[in-house]
## 1
Amino acid sequence: KILSENETVHRVGKGTAYYPAEIFLGNGWLTMLYNHYVIVESDVRLLIININSRMIHPTHYAYQMSYEEIKKVSKGLIFSKIMLTRYKGKRRIFNSVKRHIAKDLALFIRERMKSAGKWVENRSYLEYLCPSCFEPLEKGLADCTSCRTEFKLPKKAMLRSLLLPGLGDIYLGHRLLGLLELTFSVVIWIFVLTS
């Protein structure tokens, strides 16, 4: 459903999106359980789709990048990862990519970057895709302009997490992670209040 007519897939890889510094924070290591992404290289664009750890069902985050908006692609020197730096917008880093796959992905992206058109500063590059109909969308919408699917908003998740850690993840659909955070924070509060 996500591929357009005549779009051909050339390479597929899997990576985990997290920052190594997160590991030292309370729930940082838990992000590695649910922040898995499939990186799909087609002849037209790069697709990045959030999946569960068993690669069975796609979940709620889907992105696209045109090859012309990628400024630089690099692999990790020590750890196995791939980094995509764009001319404008957020840099994407995927860790735990198998070394040979990271090398293949990087080579293919570089080839496509050379043959892609030139970066146009004021052109609108729509990065976000609706998880239901895969229509390209502007950032920060509350629902899809095409199929009217309602989205879970990061701001609402943040406010719920500030109220009680774990509520934000439960709202986003990460129930196991949210319950672990919630349980852990309740145990800490009980310990603090009884000490």
Note: The two ends are 56 Å apart (CA to CA).
## 2
Amino acid sequence: LGDDTVATEFARRADARREAIDLHLWNPDAALYADYDLDLGRASDRLTAALGFALFTGVASAQRAPDAANAIAGLLRAGGLLTTECVTEQQWDAPNGWAPLHWVAIEGLRAYGQNALANTIAQRWLAMVASHYDSTGQLLEKYDIEQCRAGGGGEYGTEIGFGWTNGVTLALMQDLG
């Protein structure tokens, strides 16, 4: 809004944040962005769909984006992306997948020109959601990405008609025609 001093300061902060993410959240051995492991003092080796946020927010470098895309592809299953590869019977782990993490990964991949993978993820997600909807009349909060059915686990049952699934599904349908 014309305040160049404030704009410059926030640009500096954004650059510092980008550098910190590259320094602390990039795992060079696994070639992925990950959570920071406080016990190990470095980025975790654990592959999760949350790595899509580095692409979605634009903080991933152009050099690291292809490796991040390859890592995301490791989560790809019949119905889209697993949240993690860990099987714990908790709702934010395998075999579950969640609409917002799909959106983040798809849009992040598109931002870095990884359109083929983004479209594959979107198509698999939409096919699973449509199949489940056709057989039950329901859109769900989470899905079992491997078996293409209702998700489970966690501290409560699977919710029906969840807003983020509705919104992501509608947006992807519009994007893909």
Note: The beta strands are 26-27, 32-33, 36-37, 42-43, 76-77, 80-81, 96-98, 142-144, 149-150.
## 3
Amino acid sequence: MVKQRIALGVEYNGSLFSGYQLQSHGTRTVQGELERALSKVANEPVRLTCAGRTDTGVHATGQVVHFDTAVERELKAWMLGSNTNLPGDVSVHWVRQVDDDFSARFSAISRSYRYILYNRRVRSAVFQHNVAWSYASFDEKAMHAAAQYLLGEQDFSAFRSSRCQASHAVRVMQAISIKRQGDYLILDIKANAFLHHMVRNIMGTLMVIGRGEQPAGWMQEILHGRDRKCAGMTASAAGLYLVNVEYPKQYGLPDSGWLPTLS
């Protein structure tokens, strides 16, 4: 029985999920919903590998997963069939057959996240689960300048969660920027890989600088100090989106996500 490997591009609103990964206590997860839907299409159990395990409340427009199956289905049947069986807060946007050496996790050469902070005096009722919120005044230019200290290969111990299970904290930050779009502050960040809570901890530290409580150079001190207790708070999960996972061109995969913009 010959198996084939199938990759999928997935989008979800993380507001009502206990993160992407299956949980031992049976709470609702993105992986659980996807595997349930795909198993109905395959008429047998399907197990997924993902590019990045997002936390409770975190969203994705560009998650990538893969699975192996000996079941013969047209590619469009995997997409249409899974979407028919998925709840409204998860959808499959593309499907490709890939080589056996492809891994949604290990073949990725970069991941990109966008963090959206709604910055007005009054919180939004409509977007309360889709953006973070703060009424404070922020200097986005100081935040952007501080963020540039994080570029390159660095030890990001100061920005990893105490529950992080990674064997080491060295990551390569490929791009990072802060900009303002109307009432929104937008953090765009790209690295080869990320630690648990890394983006949210970086954003929380940048917010301290943006409020004028520390100078931009404080970011470098925090980075080199490698002490999580000295950095800023963990920013809200609601503003975080996994927007793209990049793979070598040989796999022929589409850009896996889009960048949500609210202006």
Note: The chain is about 20% helix and 30% strand.
